[in-house]
């Protein structure tokens, strides 16, 4: 348990016990400082759980990771058409071919068994070879059961297996290989500083945690507080400044003219298809079930997932109401209470977790969504604030031994720029007021802090945003 208290500059406030010195020698101690700010929910949770990415970034701002989706890709119908064929007769249909969008017109093989949108099936008998300049491919199939289906552009034609005659040749067998999707993000370099005058030298703040007893100047506290909050907000709302034209593969891309390099935060990385709305003040248990069901389809497993749901006060109120209504329904309107002996009775319940479909959701308060200095829609009466009611479902599970959501920082082999703080002495020296050495002639010294970091959302399809409308 961490302990924070104020004190005065004296014989114990040496450079050996200074927070800034220990951050330089042992960067991992920065986590202890970050954990003093638990209201910064995302940063606190990831740091406390040790969710730091193993990817090393030394000479670049960009970082990439792989995510394996489903092994077999579907064929996508190019144009609307009607297929009509008796069992055993042949028919053709046209599929799209757009490799840049991950759609391939040659991912069907001869002797594949395909299933159409109405449930009828057919055997593929011919898949013409196509070139990079082709945008479509015409597939021939033999109907297994009578075909009478109207296809529309964008329909999925899925492969359910394959079927061969006895004595088939190896040359007749097709092959498919699915490559993992590559995701890319960039680090953001954030900085802040404060000036500490001679009159500020006497006031220090001590932090005790896990055997460490470190101090820093109290004047730094507000600056550090502001910086940590800005990091938290950026890890939610940040958007990349990099152009899309040439950022992958092979080079790091270029920032939009006049902008520094910036990376995407959590919200920008979540896939747009995993976003839904609910009526403010009227969230139901069914809304939650349907949304978790959608996300679990894209997780590594349909069950056993833990979704941490970050939300503001409106979201917490709406979740409480939904759980209360559910409990009242299950209990036929019976009141909720936890009684104690004597003359007082405690009523109510704190709803923080919900188990459904073999998965668990854990409610976590996110103060950033309640900040009136960030959002002009925050309502004092609630039931109307879109941002305070935003519910961000993050899949906090592990995939192949790696956490789905992680922080990443510049550095490798013991060098880490996730949290760096330094003093720049002027006429005032932070450790020795009588020192004759100074970096400049200013009548103060500066405390500067920086973080060159980013966030990885490895599988954006297993995360989602449920907003109130």
Description:
This protein is of the alpha+beta class and 469 residues long. 16% of the residues lie in helices and 32% in strands. A 6-stranded antiparallel sheet has the order 3-10-6-7-8-5, with no helix packed on it. The longest helix is centred in the middle third of the chain and has 20 residues, at 218-237. It has 7 helices and 27 strands. The radius of gyration is 29 Å and the shape is elongated.
Q: Total number of helical segments?
A: 7
Gross morphology is: elongated
Which regions contain 5 or more consecutive residues with pLDDT less than 50? 245-250
Largest sheet, if any?
6 strands, antiparallel
Summary?
The chain is an alpha+beta fold and 469 residues long. The chain contains 7 helices and 27 strands. The strands form 8 sheets. A 6-stranded antiparallel sheet has the order 3-10-6-7-8-5, with no helix packed on it. It has a 6-stranded mixed sheet with strand order 15-27-21-16-20-19.
What's the structural blueprint in terms of helices and strands?
Layout: E1 3-8, H1 19-25, H2 30-34, H3 41-48, E2 62-67, E3 75-76, E4 81-85, E5 90-96, E6 112-115, E7 121-126, E8 136-143, E9 147-151, E10 156-162, E11 181-186, E12 188-196, E13 203-209, E14 212-217, H4 218-237, H5 266-269, E15 275-278, H6 285-296, E16 306-311, H7 313-330, E17 337-339, E18 345-347, E19 353-356, E20 359-365, E21 391-395, E22 398-399, E23 402-403, E24 405-409, E25 420-424, E26 445-457, E27 464-468
